């Protein structure tokens, strides 16, 4: 079964998405997500100009060989653009292989290890009453686990509160105050626990804003509220920094949504400095690479927590769900439902019911792309914000 052609689809049904469509000589079609928020056209060009010409004529069944060919053969390895492009090819080929087998992808990964995939939803608000209302809304939608994000008194805007997208062509710039955040956040979780009790799993995303000692201080302050995890508490390019955090708090740690290979995790997993791996299939080389990453993590009792925001397309979400269902060391799945317009472009078989996701039983990954619908939503430049301290210094976020 040979690859006959490939097409790169760029569409913006509310957010920008890049999708690779691979077609075989016997008519099977597979899809892979290549979306890289704020740098989408870089990956689209990488695919069109440098990857698609290499695919035509290759055996579509040779997924591992194709992965190694694109990774090792380019010489310039890793990085988000390269790994997103490789992920798109990899997922599309797995989609094709599962369709050829007449099975949902998770069956080719060893079959189901659970009946459903626990998902967490996003609750946020500018102040405490809005936060509590948002938690109630997520619970009414069926979520059994909830990430809690809150505004901070004295700060006008914070990423994660409201719509982060900007359509002016330039990133918005937000002001950050670490001390104010560290003072305020424990009071938020105290109020949420008092309102909703001890059983509801609660999560929080720090979004890389703290130094290791600040992260350790926050983790310790949050221990009375029994978080499921504290996410991206410090920029983890400095993997050794997590040693300091780990020494001072028992709050579970999740890291890695900006990582794109197993090499980013080596120290963190081997030394058991984290509890959950946060990479997305879309940004970490696809199913092939993620399965190896999770198998490595399993040796050290580290579990999965696949990144699942709305800038991962339904194709990327579906790929993650098949992994979630199959691997043994599953932890939890982030789930931010897409817009109605997005679901008009990406027709999906995965479902969400009573707090649990399932990829469905459709052969392949269970997502098809309506190219006519996609063509009606033209690409629009947009960027995530930039973070600055009160004195104007660019800060991690």
Rounded radius of gyration (Å): 21 Å
Could you name the ranges where pLDDT drops below 50 across 5 or more consecutive residues?
none
Profile the largest sheet: 10 strands, mixed
Q: For the record, give the distance between the C-alpha atoms at the N and C termini, rounded to a whole number.
A: 45 Å
Q: Helix/strand-derived class?
A: alpha/beta
**Structure annotation, total helices:** 13
Number of strands: 18
In terms of DSSP E residues, the strand content is 15-25%
Mean pLDDT: 96
Helical coverage, percent range: 25-40%
- C-alpha geometry: globular
Pfam family, one: MR_MLE_C
Domain Mandelate racemase/muconate lactonizing enzyme C-terminal: 128-252
InterPro entries: D-mannonate_dehydratase-like, DgoD-like, Enolase-like_C_sf, Enolase-like_N, Enolase_C-like, Mandel_Rmase/mucon_lact_enz_CS, Mandelate_racemase_C, Mandelate_racemase_N_dom
Protein name: D-galactonate dehydratase family protein
